[in-house]
Amino acid sequence: MRNHNLYAVLEQGFPPDRSRIAIQTPTLCYSWDDIDRASACLANLLASLELPIGARVAVQVEKSPEALLLYLATLRAGLVYLPLNTAYREAEVEYFLRNAEPALVVCTEENLEWMSRAARHAGTSHVHTLNDDRSGSLLQAAGALPQVFQTVERGPDDLAAILYTSGTTGRSKGAMLSHGNLVSNAQVLHEYWGWRDTDVLLHMLPIFHVHGLFVAAHGALMAGARMIWLPRLDIEQALAWLPHSTVMMGVPTYYVRLLADPRFGRAHCASMRLFVSGSAPLLTETFEQFRRRTGHTILERYGMSETVMLTSNPYRPESARLPGTVGRALPGVSVRVVDEAGQPAAPGQVGHVQVRGPNVFCGYWRMPEKTHEEFTADGWFRTGDMGMFGSPGQDGRVPDDYLSIVGRSKDLIISGGFNVYPKEIESLIDELDGVDESAVVGVPHPDFGEAVVAVVVPRHGCVLDEAAMIAALKQRIANFKVPKRVHVIDALPRNAMGKVQKNVLRQAYGRL
Ligand code: AMP
User: What is the mean pLDDT of the chain?
Assistant: First the structure.
């Protein structure tokens, strides 16, 4: 019988010459043999705990090669990996541990005290530490164990990971992803983006999230390609390593920050073949500025924790990558846009994005009702995103099979009974003189139910005038869409993945 364990599938892509470098940090190199042996030691340690099938391993550690090895070891041992954002503090982690009831918690030494407390409350019997300098009890315990391990057999429906959604609205939910979900998506992206073993991936994303852990790391591992492993985006390091790389993946902020450095240009990108952006919308301005500066066209894709990747702009030809769109449904993935009645929306019309495919998760951990609510009767997952195929007004500029995301349905503003899509207003505001970027939210209004409020960041050195901006927008859009207030601030609040935290804005600017 074929082993569907994700690790076993990734391993098939490792290069025949296992002495080649798999992971490189500014100071250390790890060969493919090292990956195999170190993940075997760790898997032996996990196996020695004799945990029941389906046991969870919750991990909140800083990014390091060993953190990735722990993920691989968890897969090999047939356990369920549960990464936690390193920004979460005790009260948040308490919730995740109580909800997930992991059998093992791995944390940094710095957090050991409160993490042990939280683990105890959740009934977790094992706690280990792992620091980003290769110290901690986990590696000490694993170091003496055998360097070979027979990867445990798993079926496609067996759980591989639980990813807690960022929960900017309501309680965070644990999305359960199976080996089959992750394998299918890794294989599709391998083909679609033309991964090869000569690639070098500049890996600067966090690995507690789908983008860095699944999209980026699986891509390189499955291709037998080297990864340059940096803990985070650091512009000096990025400029130093880009000339040695062929692929980079980033959230839009990474591209904005690269462009903000006047030194960044074509020379850094001479060996690059692919820049991928996702997790949050890439501004058309960033897309165009990047193309002018480097000669490269950023490929934007769309996905989420519950589904891994759903759509992508084409790999070839580069000219078919269109700004403001997230491209076509990936092979094997079905995407539809429906109106309020669940009927297909016409091209150019905004509706609810729903998806289906082997990549779509198995449900929310211990939330059968929530899971039931989020799937339609005919088996489509409601992404919670609003989007459209083709162009608004169908001017033909965007082909009908290209999807554009206009925002979360929860961010939709209903003002005086009319729908207002924040993205439409944000795009218009961004075109005004002196505007760098903007976010539009709905706030309670006594007459209209909700009113549109904009929060705008000026370009460096520009002064913005609220009344003038409102007057300019009145010329271009219906009155109900025009913001009642425009607040000018220095920077938009974003989470670790570069998403604008609209809940924070609603709280701060909720009163008119
Ligand atoms: P997460 O589960 O944290 O990855 O968040 C997924 C959400 O991020 C999606 O449902 C979208 O709202 C948003 N998202 C991801 N990629 C894009 C993109 N390329 N453009 C716009 N929104 C995106």
Answer: 95
Residue 300 CA, closest ligand 1 atom number: 19
Residue 494, strand partner residues: 500
Separation CA 311–CA 335 (nearest Å): 8
Tokens matching residue 54:
């389906």
**What is the phi-psi region of residue 403: left when phi exceeds 0, alpha when psi lies from -120 to 50, beta otherwise?**
beta
Check pocket membership of 34 for ligand 1, CB cut-off 6 A. Answer: no
Q: How far is the CA of 305 from the centre of ligand 1 (A)?
A: 9
The whole-number pLDDT of residue 498 equals: 87
The length of the chain is: 512
Q: Are strands 274-277 and 247-250 parallel, antiparallel or unpaired?
A: parallel
Question: Other C-beta atoms within 10 Å of 34: how many?
Answer: 19
245 within ligand 1 shell (Cβ under 6 A): no
Domains of the chain: 413-508 (3.30.300.30)
Q: What share of the chain is helix, strand, coil (3-state, %, to 5)?
A: 35, 25, 40
Can you say whether the dihedral through the CA atoms of 490, 496, 499, 503 is positive or negative? negative
- Separation of CA 494 and ligand 1 centre (Å): 13
pLDDT for 454: 97
The DSSP annotation for 295-311 comes to: S--PEEEEEETTTEEEE
Query: Which residue ranges in the chain fall short of pLDDT 50?
Result: none
8 Å CB contact between 203 and 221: no
Closest by alpha carbon to 125, among 51, 66, 39? 51
Residue 208 CB neighbours (<10 A): 23
Is residue 256 within 8 A of residue 286, CB to CB? The reply is: yes
Neighbours of 471 (CB within 10 A): 11
Give the residue, by CA position, lying nearest to ligand 1 atom 5: 304
Task: Mention every residue, 6+ apart, whose C-beta is less than 8 A from residue 91.
Answer: none
Contacts made by residues 466-475, CB under 8 angstroms, sequence distance 24+: 469/429, 469/432, 469/435, 472/432, 473/425, 473/428, 473/429, 473/432
